[in-house]
Design a protein that fits this description.
Two copies of one chain form a homodimer.
Chain A: H1 7-17, H2 20-25, H3 37-52, H4 55-62, E1 65-67, E2 70-72, H5 77-86, H6 105-139, H7 142-154, E3 158-162, E4 178-181, E5 187-197, E6 207-213, E7 226-231, E8 233-235, E9 241-244, E10 247-252, E11 263-268, E12 274-279, H8 285-321, H9 342-374, H10 378-414, H11 425-432, H12 442-454, H13 460-479, H14 487-511, H15 513-518, H16 520-543, H17 550-562, H18 567-576, H19 578-582, H20 585-588
Parallel strand pairs in A: 3-6
Antiparallel strand pairs in A: 1-2, 4-5, 5-11, 5-12, 6-7, 7-12, 8-9, 10-11
Helix pairs in contact in A: 1-9, 1-16, 3-6, 4-6, 6-7, 6-8, 6-9, 8-9, 8-10, 8-11, 9-10, 9-16, 9-17, 10-11, 10-12, 10-16, 12-16, 13-14, 13-16, 14-16, 14-17, 14-18, 16-17, 16-18
Chain lengths: ~600, ~600
C-alpha cells in the first residue's frame, strides 16, 4: 500500500502544538510567507507517494552491492534521486546565497518526516547532506563554500559524515585517523572509518566527505580533532571533476534494516593519502561536528516519526480489511474486520497517539531553531536557542523510541502476516531499530539532557518550558470539556512529577552524579511523556471547535490516560532505583 | 559466543519462586526423585552449549530450502536432531508407557527454556512434537497411540499442528479444510493450511500431522471441527513406512526471524485426499486442539524467557569487553568497558530482572500443571488446575513481551554493532518477534485472562493467587532488610492496584464488556508486573542468607522499583481510558 502524508495532522501539530502560528504572528519568522506552507507540504506528500514510497520495498529486497570498489544502489534509486533534486527537494532549507530556498527548518522538518515515512533508507541520504551543508555553511572558508556548497544544496553532490572508527564509536575522542599538512594548504588523510552511511553510491557524480582526523601535533582526546572536507573526486579550477581521491569503500555492512542505504567501511590513504581541506580551525573539529550532529539528531527523531506514521497507516488499513472473527457480543457467520476488537483499537490508538506526540516534539524543536536563527530580538533568539538545545535530545530519543514501539505494534496488528517479510510491516521495525542508536545512542541523549541541559544555567531552559506547559494544563482544566476525561489531572500530575524529578536530578548531579546518570533514561521518557501529552492537549484545544476537531480531544485524552499517566512511576524509578543501578555490579558480575 | 544455562538462577526460580520445593515437601510430586533435577538440568545445559548453540547462527544465515516438494534444513541440523533424540531429550516429560521418562513438566519447562536460549528455531520443532504427544495421549484411540505415540515420544518422528488457513487465523472456526469418511474408518482430507511450523523437513523419516478439518455434515463454526492425524508416510502393519501420503509442502514463508524453522504452506488432496485418522470424537476437534495449545502456550512463553536470557548473556559479555569512553568522573587516556556507565547497567539490570520474573512465572505455571496431574488429593488437583489455567495466558504473553523487550535492549547495549547481523544480537530480536503472535496473539491471551479466567467462577483463582502474593509482601516487610529498599511498599501498592483493577473488570465484564476488553492488555501487564515482582521477592527471601544471595535482593528490588512500580498507572489506564478506546473509531476512521 502507498503512503499518504497526513497533512491535517501535520498542520495542526506545526501551527498549534509546535507554536509556528504564534511565532509567525510575533514576527519571528521575518518575511516568510506562510501562505505557501500547505502547498509545499502537499507537493512533498505527492512526491513521496508517487516516487519514493514505491521504491521502499524494492530497496529493502535488493539492498546494495559493493563490487570492484563501487557501490550500486537498488533498481530505480538513481533515477528517483535525480527526480528528487530536479524537483528541488534537496534545497528546501538550504541557504539562499547558494541556491537554497531558505525555507524554515520547520518546513524542512515536516519534509524530513515525509521522506522517512515514504522511504526511510532513501531519506537518510539527503539528511546527511543537510548536516554537511550546515557544517560547511557555518565553518567553511569562502573558497570551500564557493566550490562545494551550491552542489550540496542542490543535491547534485551528496554529503557524508565520517566519525566512527572500530575503537571510536560513542567515544569520538578515541579516533586515530591522521592528517598531515601537505604544505600547499591542503592535507593528506590516512585512516579507516566504519558505519559510513551512503559512503559510496551511484546516485551522483561526486560525494563530499566530512572527516574527523588528528594532526600529528594535536592534543589527545576530543580537543585534538580536526574536521576535513574530502571529495570523492577532486574538483578542478573550472568546477569540473578531476582526479579520483584516495578514499574508497572497502566493505559494506549486512544490516538488520535500512538495506537500501549503503553502510560503508571507508579506507583513506592506500595510495598516498586522501586530499582533504580543513573546515574551521585545526583541533576545533568537534565544534563543527556538533553543528552537524544537532541538525542530524532532529532529523533522526523525524525518521522515528515518519517510520511510525507509515507503520500506523499500514496497520490501520490492514485492520480495516482483514476479516477475522466477530465483534464482541455479536453472532452469525459473517466475519468482521479486526478493527472492531477493543484490543486492536487500543493498539492503533497507541500507535497514533505516540506518533502525534513525537511529531509535535520534533516540530517544536525545529520552530525553536528557526526562531533562534531568524528573530531579530537577541533575548528571543537566546531563549529560543536554549529551547532548541533542550528539545533536541528529547526529539531524538523519545521520537525514535516511539518509532520502534509503533513499528513493533504495527507487526502485532498484522498478526502472523506481520512476521512475513512480504507484508512490509516487519521492514519498518527493522528500519526503525537503528534510529535509537545512531547520531548518539538514546542513552547518550538522555545523559545530554541531564548533564548539558538540565545541568547548566540552573536548568533555566527546563523551568521556562515547564511554566509554558502549566498554562496548557490550566487551559485544559478551564475548558471544562468532559470529552477530555481525566486529561487535566493526568497532565497536572505528570508535570508535578517532572518538576520534582528535575529538582532531584539537579541536586544529585553535584552530590552523586552516578545516581543522577542512572536515572537519565527514565527521566527523558518522563519528559517526553509529559511534553507530548501537553502538546497534544494544546492541539486539541485549538482544534476542538472546528468540524471534526473533537477527534483530537480523544487522541489527547488517550495519550494522557495511557502514556502521560506513567509519569509518577517514572519519577519513582529515577529517585528510588538509583541505588539499585549503582549496586548493579553485585548482580551482573556475580 | 556460546550460551551457558544459568543453573543457579534456574534452581532458585524453580524451587522457591515457582514453589517446586514446597510441592515436593507436600508430596504433590509423588515418587519423583528431586535429587536428579540439578543433574538433568546441567546435562541439558551442556547439550545446549555444545550441540545446539553453535548451530544458531548457521540456521539463521542458511535458512531452509524447499525444492522438488522437499524441505532441506540448514547444514548440521539433521545431525544435531539425531544427537538430540539419541541423548533422550525429546522424551523428558513423555508418558512412561510409551518410552518417555515421565519427568515433571517443570523439568521439561526448564529444558524448553534452555533449548530456546541456545537455538530457538531448533527448539520449536520438539515443542510442537510435545503438543502432538499431549493431544494423542489424551484423545487418541489405543490403536493410534500404539502406532504413533512411541515414535513421537522418542522423537524418531516429529509432530505438527495444522490449524491456520488464509481466512482462518485467530478465528479457527472459519476454517474450510474438509474431511470425508472413507468407509474403512479412515478419512480423506482436502485443503490448504498456512504457517505450518516444521510442516516438512529432512531431520526424520516421518512427520505426524495433526490437522483440523470439517466433515460434510458438520455444524458451522468451532463446533463443527474435527481433529485428524495425517502421517507424511502411511505406516504399514509391521510398523515400517508405507506409501507417501497426499500432504505436501507447497510453499515456505520468507520471515523476519526463525529462519531455520520451515514455515510451510501444506496442501492436502492434490492426489485424491490425504489419508487421516480421527483423534477424539467427530466435531470435538477444538477440545483436542486446546489440549495441544495450552501446552504450546507455556512452551512459547518459555521461548520468550530463553531468547531473553540469551540476549542478556550476550549483551553482558559485550558490555564487559567493549571499551569506549571512561567511567563518569574519571580522567585519562585508558578506555573503560561500557558496563561502567550507569545507563548501561540500567539496561542490563532491566534485561536480567524481566527475564528472571518471566522465568519464574513460566515455571510456576508448569508446577501448577504438575500438581494438577500428579497430586492424589482432588481438592489440591482442582486448585492447581485452576492456577495453571490462570497462569497460562500470563506465562505466554508477559514472557514473550519480555522476550521482545529484552532482545531489543540487547541490540541497544551493542550500539551500532547491534544493528549489524553478524553480531547476533539482531537475530534474537527477529526470532523473538513471532512469540507474541503465534499460539494465540498476546491480545488474545489478555482477553482469555479477563473473560475465561477472571470472568469465571467469580474470579476465584485470581483471589486465591492474590492472597498468596500478599503473604510474600508481608514477609518482605517483616524482613526489615534495608537492602530491599522500597520493594515492600512497591509490591503492596501493585497488589492493591491489581485487586482493584480485577474487581473493576469483573463488574464491567457484565455491564460493559467492550470497556473490559479494552483494558485486557494493560491488565495482563499489570498482572505480570505484580506477580513477577512478588516472585522475585520470594526468591530473594529464600536466597539472601546464602553466600552471595544478596544479589537476588538487589534484583528483586530493581524489578519492584522499575517494573512493579508501573502498576498504578496501568490501573488508571484500564479504568480511565476504556472510554477513549471505545470511542476510537472517531479518531481512527475520521
Amino acid at each position: 500500500m502507498t503512503y499518504r502524508a497526513p497533512i491535517d495532522d501535520i498542520l495542526l501539530a506545526l501551527n498549534h502544538g509546535a507554536g509556528m502560528q504564534a511565532a509567525l504572528a510575533a514576527g519571528h519568522y521575518g518575511d516568510y510567507d506562510s501562505e505557501i506552507t500547505e502547498q509545499v507540504l502537499q507537493e512533498a506528500g505527492r512526491f513521496a507517494s508517487d516516487v519514493l514510497a514505491p521504491l521502499n520495498r524494492v530497496g529493502d529486497e535488493h539492498g546494495i552491492k559493493l563490487e570492484h570498489g563501487k557501490v550500486t544502489t537498488a533498481p530505480g534509486w538513481p533515477d528517483a534521486y535525480q527526480r528528487w533534486i530536479a524537483a528541488g527537494w534537496n534545497a528546501v532549507s538550504g541557504p539562499e546565497a547558494f541556491g537554497g530556498q531558505g525555507l524554515p527548518l520547520a518546513i524542512n522538518a515536516v519534509c524530513t518526516e515525509i521522506w522517512a515515512a515514504s522511504n526511510a533508507a532513501f531519506g537518510l541520504c539527503p539528511l546527511l547532506t543537510l548536516s554537511a551543508i550546515e557544517a560547511l555553511d557555518a565553518h567553511g572558508s569562502d573558497e570551500l563554500k564557493r566550490v562545494y556548497l551550491e552542489k550540496l544544496v542542490s543535491g547534485e553532490w551528496t554529503g557524508t559524515m565520517l566519525l566512527t572508527e572500530p575503537q571510536a564509536g560513542s567515544d569520538v575522542g578515541a579516533l586515530r585517523s591522521r592528517a598531515e599538512r601537505a604544505g600547499d594548504g591542503s592535507y593528506r588523510i590516512h585512516g579507516t572509518k566504519i558505519f559510513i552511511t551512503y559512503g559510496d553510491h551511484d546516485m551522483t557524480d561526486n560525494i563530499v566527505h566530512f572527516v574527523l582526523a588528528r594532526l600529528p601535533d594535536a592534543p589527545p582526546g576530543t580537543k585534538g580533532i580536526s574536521l576535513f572536507l574530502i571529495p570523492k573526486f577532486l574538483v578542478n579550477a573550472d568546477g569540473s571533476l578531476g582526479k579520483r581521491n584516495d578514499i574508497h569503500p572497502s566493505g559494506v555492512e549486512h544490516k538488520l534494516g535500512m538495506h537500501a542505504s549503503p553502510t560503508c567501511t571507508m579506507t583513506m590513504g592506500d595510495h598516498g593519502g586522501a586530499v582533504g581541506y580543513l573546515v574551521g580551525e585545526e583541533n576545533r573539529g568537534m565544534l563543527c561536528m556538533f553543528t552537524m550532529m544537532n541538525q542530524a539528531r532532529l532529523g533522526v527523531g523525524l525518521e522515528g516519526v515518519g517510520i511510525a506514521d507509515r507503520a500506523y497507516q499500514e496497520a490501520l488499513t490492514f485492520a480495516q480489511e482483514r476479516k477475522q472473527g466477530r465483534a464482541p457480543g455479536t453472532k452469525g457467520d459473517k466475519s468482521d474486520p479486526i478493527i472492531v476488537h477493543p484490543d486492536v483499537k487500543r493498539m492503533l490508538m497507541q500507535m497514533r497517539a505516540l506518533t502525534a506526540a513525537a511529531r509535535t516534539i520534533c516540530y517544536s524543536t525545529a520552530v525553536a531553531l528557526d526562531i533562534a536563527g531568524r528573530s531579530t530580538d537577541p533575548k528571543v533568539k537566546a531563549a529560543a536557542a536554549a529551547r532548541g538545545a533542550l528539545l533536541t535530545p528529547i526529539a531524538k530519543a523519545f521520537s525514535t523510541d516511539v518509532g520502534n514501539e509503533v513499528a513493533t505494534l504495527g507487526v502485532q496488528v498484522h498478526g502472523g502476516m506481520g512476521f512475513i517479510e512480504e507484508t512490509g510491516a516487519a521492514q519498518h521495525m527493522r528500519d526503525a531499530r537503528i534510529t535509537s542508536i545512531y547520531e548518539g545512542t538514546n542513552g547518550i541523549q538522555a545523559i545530554d539532557l541531564v548533564t548539558r541541559k538540565l545541568g547548566v544555567n540552573g536548568g533555566a531552559s527546563v523551568w521556562a518550558l515547564l511554566d509554558e506547559l502549566a498554562l496548557i494544563v490550566k487551559d485544559v482544566e478551564a475548558s471544562n470539556d468532559p470529552a477530555f476525561g481525566t486529561t487535566g489531572v493526568k497532565l497536572r500530575d505528570a508535570l508535578a512529577s517532572l518538576e520534582r524529578t528535575s529538582r532531584w536530578l539537579q541536586e544529585h548531579l553535584a552530590s552523586a552524579p552516578n545516581e543522577a546518570l542512572a536515572g537519565a533514561t527514565p527521566y527523558l521518557r518522563l519528559f517526553g511523556s509529559t511534553l507530548g501529552g501537553c502538546a497534544l492537549a494544546a492541539e486539541a484545544l485549538a482544534a476542538r471547535d472546528a468540524d471534526g476537531g473533537e477527534r483530537y480531544v480523544t487522541l489527547a485524552r488517550f495519550f494522557a490516560e495511557n502514556i502521560s499517566v506513567q509519569a509518577g512511576a517514572l519519577e519513582r524509578t529515577v529517585i528510588d532505583s538509583a541505588d539499585c543501578v549503582t549496586a548493579a555490579d553485585a548482580v551482573l558480575l556475580a
